[in-house]
Design a protein that fits this description.
By secondary structure, this protein is mainly α. It contains 20 helices and 5 strands. The protein has a 5-stranded parallel β-sheet with strand order 3-2-1-4-5, with helices on both faces. It is globular and about 80 Å long.
Length: 465
Amino acid sequence: MASSARPALWWVRRDFRLADNPALQAAIDEGEAVLPLFVLDPVLLASAGRARRAWLFAALHALDTDLQEAGGPGLSVVHGRPADTVTRVSRACEAGTVHISADFAPYGRGRDERVQRALAEHGIELRRTGSPYAVAPGTLMNRGSTPFQVFSPFHRAWTEHGVHKPAPGVRADAIDWLKADDRADIEGPDPDLADRAGEQPARQSWQAWLNRDSEGVADYARLHDFPGADATSHLSIALRWGHLHPRTVLADLAPLRSKGSLALARQIAWRDFYADTLFHRPDAVTQPVKPEFKRMPTDEPEPGTTAAERLAAWQEGRTGYPLIDAGMRQLQVENWMHNRIRMVVASFLIKDLHISWEHGAAFFMTHLRDGDVAQNQLNWQWVAGCGTDPAPYFRIFNPIKQSEKFDPRGTYIRRYVPELADVADEHLHEPWLAPGGVPRGYPPPIVDHAAERKKALDRYAVVKG
C-alpha cells in the first residue's frame, strides 16, 4: 500500500528487470503512482562501445515491452544530463521521491551525488535501495577495519556474511504507471538481439543451463576452463545489465550443493570483490593498485611503431598463435569471450608484446557486451600483476601449452580460425611446425614466446628493484 500521496520515480540504471528489484519495490511502497525512467546520459553513451550501445537499446526495448504488458505506458526514456533530466521529470510528475539501486563505480557515485543535490533543492529525496551486487561494496572489512586486499579472506568473510534472499516479486499489473511528457522514442533493437536482451530471455537461458544434463552446472567445475565445451553459464551479460540479480542466481544455486554450484558462487564472490576494490580505490580505473608498477617499461603503440603493428595484430586475431587468435576473433564476432581465454590473451598482450594493460582493457571495454569497469580493469590488473590480489608477474601464460591443455582437439580454435580447419591435431597448436608450414592465409608467429618471456622478466626486475 502506498505511504505517500505523491508519485514516485523509479530511475533505471543497471536493473533492467521487474523481479527481485528492491528499488522498484521501494518506489511502489512510497508513491501513489510510479514513473519508470531511463536517462540517456551523453557521458555514458560516449564511453560505451558499439556492442554495449546495441545491447542497451535492446534492453530498453525489452523493459519497455514488459512494462506495457503490465498495463502501463512503458518506459520513459529521456535524453540529457542526469542532474537536469531526473530533476525536471520528477518535478513535472510532482514526485516526492526518486528510487535507485546504489551505484558504487566512480562515475556513478559522482553522478548520483550531483542528482541528489539537484533534487534536494526542490524538496525531492533520492533514495538508494539495494545494489547490483550480492554483498554491496564497502560492507565487508578485515579485522583491522580496512578493505580486503586478497580474495581468499574476502571470500571467507563474504560466505560468513551471507546474502539476502531474493526480494518478493511485484504485481506490475496492479501499479498505476506514469510516463514522462518529453520521453523519446526507443530505438528499435538489433534484430540479432531482439530475443536475447531482457529479463525474460536471461531467466530462460539461466534456467535452461541449470537444468542441462551435460555441460551445465553439474559439469561447471570440471569444464568451465575448456572453451571448446559450452559449459559456462554466460551470466556475465545478464548480471552486467541487471536482467538477473546475483541474489537470484545464488538462491537457485544454494540447494544444489555441488562442486559446480560452489565454483559458480565463487565467481559471484569475485565479482563482488572487484567491485569492493574499485569502491575503495577508484583510481584503479587508470592507475595500478601497486604503484611500483608505474616503473614497468612498456612498448607504447605509437603510430608507425612495431608496438602499434603488434597491437593491431592482437586486436585482429592474426598473431600466429591459434588460441590467441581464436579468442580475439570470438570477441569481434560475439562481443564476448570465454573467461580462460580472456586471461590468456591478456597475458600475451602484456608479457609477450610488452604493451601496457590499459590498451587491452580499453579494447575490451569497446567490444564486450558485458563490459563492466570494475571487473574489466581489475581483471586486467590481475593478469598484469599490478592489482589487488594479483597473479605474480612471473606467471606468464604459455599460449602453446594453454592451447594444448584447454583446447586439445582444437574444437574452439577451428570454430573461430577457419584457416586452421584442416591442420592435423598434432600441429594445430604450433602450425608453423606442420609439413609445409602455416596454411595459406594464416600468419606465422609475430614473436617468439620463449624470448619474449625472458624480456618480460628482465623488465620486471626494474619493478622489483
